[in-house]
Amino acid sequence: LAEGLPGLAGAAAPGDHLQVAWQLWLPGHQLGRGAAPWLDPYSFQPEVEARVNFAGWPFAPVFGPLKALFGTVVAWNLFVLLGYLGAGSLTFLWLRSVGLGVGASLAGGLVFALAPYRAVQGGAGHLLAWIAMLLPLSLWAWERRLYWLTAAALATIPLSGQVHLALGALPFVFAYALVRGGDRRWAGGALAAGLAAGVLVWAAAIRGSIGSSRSFAQVERYSAELADFVSRDPRHGLEAFVFIGWLVPLLALLGFVLHRRTGLGLVLGAGALLPMVLALGANLPGYEALWETVPGLDVTRVPGRLMVITCLALAGLAALGLEWVMQQRRGLVVLGAALVLVAVDLRAGVTAYRPTAADAGNRAYAALGHEEGGRLLEMPVYAPDRQEASVYLYYAMQAPRERPAGYSTVAPKKAARVLRELQPCAD
User: Fold this and answer.
1) Are 386 and 379 in contact (CB under 8 A)?
2) Reduced to 3 states, what is the DSSP secondary structure of residue 297?
3) What is the longest distance spanned by two Cα atoms in the chain?
């Protein structure tokens, strides 16, 4: 279940889902051989030192046992489904802790779980779709005064490699904590923990990589347009897809109008609006100056990556609006109709997945065997930020070897230079 690219006949379809499967498999494999679970000792070798596999945290303990029990393909499909369950359940718990009823909280959980943007990111194989559930977890933990859990959830967002999301998630959760009461020292501590984690990831993985010197032309390529917010079709690529539904925004607007004088309403309103504005990227006057000025923003290239905050804020506001509607006309009929309409409204997320070639038992790699030793150069040689290189990561789970190749948008510059030199070998 993925939105894989067309590939060679009989081979696995390239896509970021293969990269994520590798990253989630690697910590368990490393533990099994008595090595540090946070390192990738195979990619871009022997050109660079073993790199930290940030994306293995925190879901490797979930994916690893699934793979051991069912194999890579079934494990991935189950992981996709668990992403929906986790996002919806944690949003439900958060809304219940705010004081909403079961019906409205269920609707809010459904909105976030089925949010088209989150679903499309999952179909594209972007870990962002799963890391997004840490947002409602952090809010629920704050409501329950589990301050340590809020801090851990916030720090985990950048530690998982989702530094761009952290740029929006940290101020959003911090503002939420301030308006919802509780220990403000812990709010500052959680913010500091997230910032420290972000700096660590930047220093260990981004600094000196091919992702440390982005051009604004990349931002222009992936910037959304106003029409994209109401269009079910990815008119110019999945990265610019920011559809928010048609019914959900109306329910959210009702919720905001009813709660616009409360701290909760204001924070959720800002959380819904600001990421949408920023998703316009190069189409927003002044964004280039902002991109060049805000620390960390200048290494990003997809302005819409903050949209999961919008998805959660819309879910919260829609639940507030539905709670009022149900109070006016009580009954399961209203709730049932609302759930059906919300599901239909957000059905665009279903198109994010399709049956995707997996080639789970490739005979060539099976012949190499799982015994480690030696190095492997696969043909053709791809630049490290080309999705076609993800196929080699996937097959590396069958035959782990050191290899000069790899797939990462933050690959070390030295490794990228070596791969460029090797590319003529494919001819």
Assistant:
1) no
2) helix
3) 71
